[in-house]
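Our preliminary data section would be incomplete without showing what the modeling component actually yields. Below, a chain of 113 amino acids is followed by its predicted structure, encoded as tokens that our downstream tools consume directly.
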Amino acid sequence: MLALFSYPLEQAIGAGALFNVVISLPAAVLFLGAYLGTPRRPADSVGAVALFCVAALSLPALFVALVATRWSATAPATLLHRLFALCLALIAVRLLLCPLNLGLGQSGKFVFI
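Predicted structure:
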């Protein structure tokens, strides 16, 4: 969004990353404290955060990010724009086709699957 208002792209990306950190840290703290006394939680979970899932999703992402950064620096801008548009379209289709699932069971209580 900032790039549309003539900010340099590097500053716009940095501001977006900072905004993501500001949003995600309080959410992570709340999820760590949520559902601490809930039965049927996985053994490796702290609150509503399953540590195995965090490791399984974040560690590969760290390694892929390095490769993707190097590749995106050399890839043509039109290709990157089209790939980004394709990703947004796929996300939109998935959101439209999948029902809203908040992890709530039929009883309205949070359910760990």
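Residues 2-76 form one domain. The chain is about 60% helix and 5% strand. Preliminary results of this kind motivate Aim 1 of the renewal.
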